[in-house]
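Hi R.,

Here's the chain you asked about this morning:
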Amino acid sequence: MPLPYQIPGLHLSRSASAPPAVVKSLQRDLRRLGYLATGIDGFFGRATDQAVKALQHDLLFNSGDGSDGAAPVKVRDYNRSRVEAVNGILDQGLAAAMADMLDDERFAKVPSSAAPAAENERIARQMESMRSEEIPVPFLVAVFRQESDLKHFREPSPNNDDSFVVVGLDRSSAAAAVIASRGYGVGQYTLFHHPPSAAEVTSLILDPGSNILQAVAEFREKFLFFVNGNTPGTRADDRQAEYGRGALRRCRYPAADPRYMTGCRECLAAAGTIDIRAGLTKFYAGASRVYEPTGYHPEVEYRGVPVRANIGCDWPYAVRRYNGGGLDSYHYQAQVLLRVLNG
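And here is the predicted structure, written out as tokens:
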């Protein structure tokens, strides 16, 4: 059966209107294929335009390879000379390529939930009762709130029919049409190849428990190997400036103390605060760079951020490295510290 937007002569774009039901069908399929983060609203806006362009780019250039391995199929193999440019226009050649991708079981789809609110509530309760001696759960919960608002599935609203797994699209590449990686679910488990395999969807994307465990493992890895390593790429500059090369600090309290790895909010509250202002506040004392707004973080000020150097552990630095490095990671760190402090 043809897709609702497989209509001879139909072209969809930001400048070519169509019935909302037709646009919603397109958005739902772009979501299933991993090209739209959210927004099943019947309006062909900027997000849908970017999704169409990203799909067109992959149909022209995607070889299925990523830094974490190869995808089960190559997106460009579905082109068959039907897409020739990245222009944001859904014509019938692109629609036919999408139909083939949707029909192919090898192209694993982003899953959805029939009861997303209940699933998210169950996950929130699971996180509230979670205990770990490997990572501080209050920091982990704050990271998840930053990454996914502590939701594994989108919850439909009157203006958005989305109930798919939360997907974060990294468009950090200079080319806006290029999706560099995708983060999935509550923990935003990241894949650099696309599409994922069926096994990855089942074990890491659809299952919140596995998704959380992968995020825990990655957070722990950032703490162990990307804060105080032996090379510039495995060290956190802010940690080196504020604490030097001393041994990693897992917690200021001994393991026998009931506050061990749990009293994070109290530690942050006792650390004092700083107001961070774009264009004025340096990353750390002696740094050459200052906070500035970015595409991902347009904020120009953060008030009452806990003083990182006074917290007494190295998890604030691991939080930043969880997000990578550079300016965006410092914004990310400040926001997560505020989330820990404010619960």
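One quick note: Residues 20-103 form one domain.

Cheers,
M.
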